[in-house]
Amino acid sequence: MFCSWACRFVIGFSLFFHTIANADSVASYPEDWETWPVVKESLTLPADTVLPPDTSLFIQESVRSYSWINNGQGSPLTIRVNPKKLEQYKTHGPYTDGPTVVAVSEVDGIIWVTEHFSGLPIYGSYNRKGEDIASMHPTLEPEFCQRCHDRYKDICINGTCTEPVLSSYE
Fold this sequence. Notes:
Organism: Enterovibrio qingdaonensis
Number of domains: 1
Number of helices: 4
Structural class: alpha+beta
Signal peptide: 1-23
Radius of gyration: 18 Å
Strand order of the largest sheet: 1-2-3-4-5
Keywords: Signal
């Protein structure tokens, strides 16, 4: 089938726009996240970490996905919950609309946001200035978060995950 220059332009523009749009965070940046209570501390592990053979697939994939953080050296990870949703978090939902949880990579200042909208989780990645950084790395894109959280629904219940990396080493 023949496609004119106009057809190729429309297809190319659509693909370009689709790529740019997919990289943007869907969840909003919660301005007051630093006041939220810390509910969990964990780690993004260094790239050279050797995991125990019985480590869950969720942790294995998390380590593989985020081994690039802090130039492969890992980082402390702090989990904070919106104070209005603490009771919901204790039972992993259902959640009301709005920002729910942030996970903060303390070294690189990456802030992963989980927000709920109409009962469904949506995701975003920001820096400490509130700038959207989802396009900085494929593992920061909302689609990546969504796929992983959906794949591990037994651990990521209603979009919030329950297995901290540190539990593998306790």
